Amino acid sequence: MAETTHPVPGGPGAQDSGDPVPVSRARLVVRRFLRHRLATVSLVLFVLLVLLAFVGGALWHYGYDTFTPDNSQPPSAAHPFGTDATGYDLFAQVLRGTQRSIEIALFVAAASGIFGSVWGAAAGLYGGRVDTLMMRVADLVLIFPAIAVAAVLANNVATGGQGWLLIGVVLAALTWPYVARLVRGLVLSLREREFIAAARTFGAGSWRIIFRHILPNAMGTIVVAVTIIVAVAILAETALSFIGFGVRAPDTSLGLLVSQNQSAVSTRPWLFYFPGLFIVVIALCVNFIGDGLRDAFDNTRSRSRT
Amino acid sequence: MSPTTHQTTTAEVLSVRDLTVEFPDERGRVQAVRGVSWSLREGEVLGVVGESGCGKSATALAVMGLLPPGARMGGSVRFRDRELAGLGDRGMSSVRGRSVAMVFQDPLSSLNPVYSVGFQVAEAVRAHHPGTSRDDAVERAVHLLELVGIPNARDRVGDYPHEFSGGMRQRVVIAIAMANDPDVIIADEPTTALDVTIQAQVLDALRTARAETGAAAVLITHDLGVVAGQADRVVVMYAGKVVESGTADEVFYRPRMPYTLGLLGSLPRLDGRFGARLTPIAGTPPALDRPIPGCAFAPRCPLARERCLTEEPELREVDGHLTACHFAEELVDKRPEDVFVPVVAPVALTAERPVRTEGPLLRATGLVKHYPVRGGGFFRRQVAELHAVCDVSFSLSAGETLGLVGESGSGKSTIAKLLMSLEEPTAGRVELDGAAVRGRKHARDLQIVFQDPMGSLDPRMTAADLVAEPLRINGLAKQDARTRALELLASVGLGRGRSERYPHEFSGGQRQRIGIARALALRPRVLILDEPVSALDVSVQADVINLLEDLQDALGLSYLFIAHDLSVVRHIADRVAVLYLGRVVEVGERDAVFDHPSHPYTQALISAVPLPDPRKERVRERILLSGDVPSPVDPPSGCRFRTRCPRFLGALTDAERSLCVEEVPGLVERGQGHPVACHFGGPR
């Protein structure tokens, strides 16, 4: 593996024997990702969190909307995260909230990542008037104060069990221009690179150039942008729920929990800190995973920072 | 002007003893300089030559105390009686500029873009003479700018660096270096980024600077020709060490280190020896991240034996000068080709397509390319036209190499793009075998090798994938494409286990081989080589040139060889076309053009190329062209060369001049046996 990461200037000592079996690109990406220790740890932690939230939530003997006879209990064996004044089990609520937050965040990241990339790549590739028009539309979206718009839209439509999906759509609709601008810039600079001209000289079509040459080279940046959006979406959902326009009771989210329990920081701190901790851990994990992915996609970067 | 020959009795101004420089690196520390000693005497020019990565620039930076943070330096640097090593930034400030001045390679980044050039020269004056009034300083700046040959210096002191061309900027940098009458000027690759006629101007300015200040100079360069013409003494560096040192004549005519001999042998020359095969040095310089027990050159040296691998050779005197080789005596009266046996490239490909055709294979007729120049406003209206290529015609026969020569802005690369259909011509047509080339229909027959081997290879693909890609696009199954790609890589000398590496893991020469293998994948008949060796070091360049020659012999390819380096073109081309500002000014058989140039531009171009031969350099007469290439947005009327033409500015009568101004000269044979586009073309 070392030979694919070290820039060996082909000098003496750079020979190895025979043609190695070609390793598929996906395999290489996985291998490089695993070498990024922090990212690997974060990925494991994130997967555990997701399992805990979705599987653990179903198995836990209290539901997020079950009243228990205990109220305002500090953490104990029966209630690991304690209970609130109404008697809800906070552990069950945090798991439910984590589900909601992760669902929204991943949805927003995927939707705005894909839409933004396509929009930006198209603008960059077509250039000229099309580019100007498309980017002005993106700018138009950017000038809306995201939280205010989200609050108004979510307030008007967010009802019933699918409310989280709507919040996701609204947040995605407000964040895609960031990805689009980034991808457009990348495409504009990549388009001028000589290897694109080289590909054209032997007859590569536009689609091949986009998927074979431009996207792999832009992947690192897109991945980082998308992971930032994951974190942003979690925080945005938190903020929306915090000001009362996000997920509604009896359903709950991490943001809503923090907001409901902010007044209890000094008297029953567990109510505030456990959901807060989950928010921080999820956001950090996602960012580190993004770092790892960027390095994994970029074979020109030798293993420098880990 | 010939270099002054000083006697060895003159005092030393600057001396370097056992200098070492280490840089931190991802993999530990790199020993960039491993014990270098040399001395510079009053008024002399010391040439420091070596390929990239040999430690020449690191030495210069260490002398100036400009090493980046993290770098470690050992040994001693003495300026007259003063020790400079360990002086610290503050102490060095009084030395820099005043005692030792430096000229860097890139004049754009060594000038501050937000200040006018006059201000920057004046600032240099005031830095060491704080008492100077602003007006006096500006006055001195004007004087200095005039000295280095900036036309209308007084009007231009207020201009900013971006308003000057590269050559003019480098002269400003030289003016700054002269500002405080230094005792030593260190010039680090001062002309590397410049065209050859501009290089001649800058070298001239550097000479003026030395004459004016009486300074001694250290001239650091990879170009043996530049050193031959400028230096009194020469130091050859390899892998962070001095491997040979002596007077220019001794080093050039009696090299006693195989590396020096190899460098001379791998250099294509404008005079003599062309046609002969170049003798490249195999391999690449060693990585300096671990100690090298023996001679650093041993792995590449044909003379190397057991002792060279274990015992480091010290610099010792052989035949009157210093060399670091255990077996230097064996080099007496040896020519490069006696020592470096030219490697026969492992070309195993066979031509599987008919190569013989009647008449020219590739023909370009009346090619014109204008680019719109757009304004900055919202609608980006077209405000002017850039005339990149103007009525260019040429033809290329099967198996032939046509050299397309020109300086930057001559339109050579645009022509390559037009031929490859990467750009639509404004007018004119390209025919291959009599049929018009349109779009990518002729992708298979016409392929290109780009100048920058790093930029033209997708960094995210392995060598095998890169070479296989054109085959895959043209419908070959994955496995077949791979087999063929490995075959192609092997044929350019990249076999055995390197196929799964990424471009950045190869050296420059190897990357260019990948580019060549990829261009050959579709079995083209014509290869367009757009400056294929100009980004490579001399020894590597020779290797690639030999490979191209072998491939041409084996496959019957036709080459359109685009280059600014006349020596390389003279070596490889059968016919030559000289371009100036988008027009062909002279075309003909190689030897006819080089031996009997008829166009004043061709004559100036040829005379400006430095030869790696000190004696010839001393007696050569240079035609110095004035000024810069005019902007292609508003090219001169009539003959485009007239604004710089020594004939137009000199001997012609007014009546003759008006012909140059009014009428575009056609390509006509004028008594020299080949066509030339000059109303008054002929021998000098």
UniProtKB/TrEMBL annotation, chain A:
Q: Where is the major localization of this protein?
A: membrane
Gene Ontology CC annotations of this record:
plasma membrane
Q: Which CDD domains match?
A: TM_PBP2
Disordered, as annotated region? 1-20
Protein's name according to its UniProt entry: Oligopeptide transport system permease protein OppC
Membrane topology annotation: Multi-pass membrane protein
What InterPro entries is this protein classified in?
A: BP-dependent_transpt_permease, MetI-like, MetI-like_sf, OppC_N
Which family does the UniProt entry place this protein in?
Answer: Belongs to the binding-protein-dependent transport system permease family. OppBC subfamily.
Q: Which organism is it from?
A: Actinokineospora terrae
**Alphabetical keyword list:** Cell inner membrane, Cell membrane, Membrane, Peptide transport, Protein transport, Transmembrane, Transmembrane helix, Transport
Instruction: Give an example GO biological process.
Output: peptide transport
Q: TM segments?
A: 38-62, 104-125, 137-158, 164-183, 221-249, 270-290
Boundaries of each ABC transmembrane type-1 domain copy?
Answer: 102-290
Q: What is its subcellular localisation?
A: Cell inner membrane; Cell membrane
TrEMBL record, chain B:
Return the Pfam families for the record: ABC_tran (PF00005), oligo_HPY (PF08352)
Task: Please state every residue range assigned to the domain named ABC transporter.
Answer: 14-264, 373-606
Q: What's an example Gene Ontology biological process for this entry? A: peptide transport
Q: Which SUPFAM superfamilies does the record associate with it?
A: P-loop containing nucleoside triphosphate hydrolases
Q: Select a single GO molecular function from the record's annotations and give it.
A: ATP binding
Annotated protein name in UniProt: Peptide/nickel transport system ATP-binding protein
Its keywords, alphabetically, are: ATP-binding, Nucleotide-binding, Transport
Q: Which family does it belong to?
A: Belongs to the ABC transporter superfamily.
